[in-house]
Amino acid sequence: MNAKDTQVYVSRVIGLPLVDAAGDQVGRIRDVVFHLRTGSLAPRVRGLLVELFARQRIFVPMIRVHAITANQVSILGQVDTRKFQKRDTELLVDGDLFDRPVPREHPTKIYDVSIVQVRNREWEVRSVALHSRTKVGRFGFGGRSTTEIVRWDEVPDLVLAKGRTAAHFVAEFSDMKAADVARELHDLDPERLAEVVHALDDETLAEAIEELPEDEQVELIQALDHERAADVLEEMDPDDAADLIKELPAAMAEDLLQRMEPEDASDVRRLLLYEEHTAGGMMTPEPIVLDTDATVAMALARCRDEQLTPALAAMVFITRAPHETPSGRYIGACHFQQLLRSAPTLQVATMLDQNLEALTPTTPLAEVSRFFATYNLVVAPVVNHLGQLVGAVTVDDVLDHMLPDDWRGIQMDAQRASEVTGGRG
Question: 176-273 belongs to which homologous superfamily?
């Protein structure tokens, strides 16, 4: 059932075991979470509501779902075990749709909903199964039951009502790039902004915050309650989260770090040790790190991870164990193009770029920019005095630090002015 355009009925998914990449059961599926979208766009499935063995219910995003079969749902990567909290703009298929009345000539209710994978790990609601019963006789006899499969947009509850509510903004944002979402947030009045921010999921909000001007990032994160703010910071790239935390009052910054998951907080704390305009202050601590016996096929599989930016996917790094930063001894780096030109069974360690030196955490911005220009790079390794890989700097990080501090705000205001004047100079 994991093939594109294969419909899966939610009633058959509920109750299935959820298993991780190792084949171990994590919990059981209890519901499917989705949200409405504007215009003719079908409702998008956000993820699964999963009940752990401890009876706690958590959210698993659809991007983690590898396959849905008749016997189980399998996932890749780690799951967040925090308790699921439904947002105002989210709906549950079982909890909110099953048995809901639908306007028809005879009494009609929803008894099932199908979802379909339309793109890689992106799912939408496709159709709705309705159950109707014709009017019974005077003494309760007669009548008959019928079933009907209809398109999602034939069910009023799945069509977003007209009006610019928070739900509309969230629906529109689901198909927009993070920079465009940030621009929309930038233009909202404070009251509407608070409503929309409250309705957004943590991941979308985190990506948008990264694209906002620095002062607006600070204002927005300070306006959230500390628990939500910590959740949003966890979803941000560690280097962006560190830059933002540096701008917060010391007491608030420490409180947020304490509330974050230990692993996420640890990454951010390490970045806070470095000056902002150095390789250490700009780097991400989550590049692709492989063992010395990794093959080209294994490296390419890691490069395909949808969570990686194109820049981070452009190079893999070989180290001794451990393979999380700070790693074991750094061995070298291999470019993505070299991997594409090589046989899948070859070891990556045999094709490292011998001319590529590593940056140090204290390398200043001016040297970093010259380094990128000299070697025509989009990503570069950062290695400490102990010979450990501690992170990687990407070209977008370099540009972000070379541009004026308020370049995002200037760009947004310029775009808005251009729209007002109809694009005329």
Answer: MgtE N-terminal domain-like (1.25.60.10)
Strands (E) located in 20-144: 25-35, 44-52, 57-61, 65-68, 73-75, 91-92, 108-119, 122-133
Q: Within the chain, which residue ranges are assigned CATH 2.30.30.240? A: 7-97
Residue range(s) in the chain whose domain bears CATH number 3.10.580.10 = 288-402
Q: In whole numbers, what is the pLDDT of the chain averaged over residues? A: 88
**CA quadruple 195, 199, 196, 62: dihedral, nearest 10:** 180
Q: Are 334 and 307 in contact (CB under 8 A)?
A: no
- Which own/partner pairs from 187-196 qualify as long-range (CB within 8 Å, at least 24 positions apart)? 187/412, 187/416, 192/166, 193/220, 194/223, 195/166, 196/166, 196/169, 196/170
What is the spatial distance between Cα 223 and Cα 195, in angstroms, rounded to a whole number?
12
The partner residues of 394 in beta bridges, in order of sequence, read 379
Ranges 123-137, 191-205, 219-233: which has the least confidence: 123-137
CATH code of the domain occupying 7-97: 2.30.30.240
- Give the CATH fold of the 288-402 domain: CBS-domain (3.10.580)
The residue type at 175: D
**Whether residue 421 has pLDDT greater than 50:** no
Sign of CA dihedral 397, 304, 45, 259: negative
3-state DSSP assignment of residue 381: strand
Q: pTM for the complete prediction?
A: 0.68
Neighbour count for residue 214 (Cβ, 10 Å):
15
Give CA angle at 380 (214, 315), nearest 5°: 110
Query: What is the band of 425 on the pLDDT scale with cuts at 50, 70, 90?
Result: very low
